[in-house]
Automatic annotation (TrEMBL):
It holds the Pfam family TetR_N. Keywords: DNA-binding, Transcription, Transcription regulation. PROSITE patterns: HTH_TETR_2. The lineage of its organism: Bacteria, Bacillati, Actinomycetota, Actinomycetes, Kitasatosporales. Residues 11-71 form the HTH tetR-type domain. It comes from the Bacteria. InterPro entries: Homeodomain-like_sf, HTH-type_TetR-like_transc_reg, HTH_TetR. This is TetR/AcrR family transcriptional regulator. GO terms for molecular function: DNA-binding transcription factor activity; transcription cis-regulatory region binding. Residues 34-53 bind DNA. It comes from Streptomyces jumonjinensis.
Amino acid sequence: MALPRFHRLPADTKAALLAVARAHFARDGKDGASFNRIISEAGISKTSAYHYFDGKDDLFDEVVADAAARTLAALGPWNEAAAEDELWRQVADAHTRLVTQLREHPEDRAVLAGQPHGHRDGHAWVRRLVDNGRRIGIVGPEVDAELVTVATIGVLEAFDAWALERPEGLDRPSAESLTLLLTRLWR
């Protein structure tokens, strides 16, 4: 991740540097992107760049974290559902927001594709979803709550990885598939 000095930069300077890096990583991949070309295009000297990052891997990690944060912001908070149909509607709406975010920001989709998931903020959202499902009776009590949550996270991460690797999949309605997978897992 970025060194502390990067986080002290003005927000617009950080955003500009990350936008240039995101474009390079999305187009060329992590291995194909050149740290020197990125910092040159961003108008940063090599000396300055090493005050902000230990190298290309740190810059890439920061770009991925930034894309993940924006994607999680698009997801929005989980709001307690009072009934099963309301819960599934919220899941479908969240799915639509994520698809819209990734369609409108293909560079984010490209840098997130193939990356390990496991962002704690996303896990908190899933925990609230599963807890809500338990309270309204659509997540069965037979299995330990933590195990159901971990399994749900696994299903969602697999679904995300599948969708991120197939940009054309963003054009197909897949909320129904997600609902079917979760329903079968939970019952």
